[in-house]
Model the fold of this input.
Amino acid sequence: MSDLADRYPLAVTLGGTEFQIDFLREPTDKAVVAFHQALPEHDLLFLDRDVREPRVLAAWQRRVEAGDIVSLAAWRQDELVGTTAIFRDPQSWSAHVGELRVLVAPALRETGLGRQLIQQSFLLGLDMGLEKLTVRMTLDQDRAMVVFEELGFRREAMFRDHVRDKYGDTHDLLVMSHDVPGFRSKMQALGLDAL
Done:
């Protein structure tokens, strides 16, 4: 991480409510567990694994410690209200690609918190030297799709009947991506790369 890491914790006020955004260093913390347990299961279908499971959180913790995952957390006072993670696999053929995952408490959607977390994660992806960011979601997450599209993500693939919920119903999974070097070039052309 470069100097960008020095920007956290970051205070953000949205709709009169102050949030604190900081690195999430302990995914196994009881506040993180409680946050994930409170989310509707459908919100988690785009994830490879169920983050409500202790062994999944322990694996997340190990990957954070190894530097393969960079996560952010949004707090409203002492309550965790959002998390992000940028996953990358430095040993794979796709070491230049990061997968972004974002979760926001249902009561705080449409407040701008999700957008703020995505923007902060995108800046971290730039800082990590990633060339491409991907994000996955089920097709009914249309508000999230709009936010990602507004931030320059484009639809890349759709997998039909790719995930199955606890009732046995299948759901399509959409993959969107963002060309990071292209974005960096646009920032440089506009003189914004020094920000």
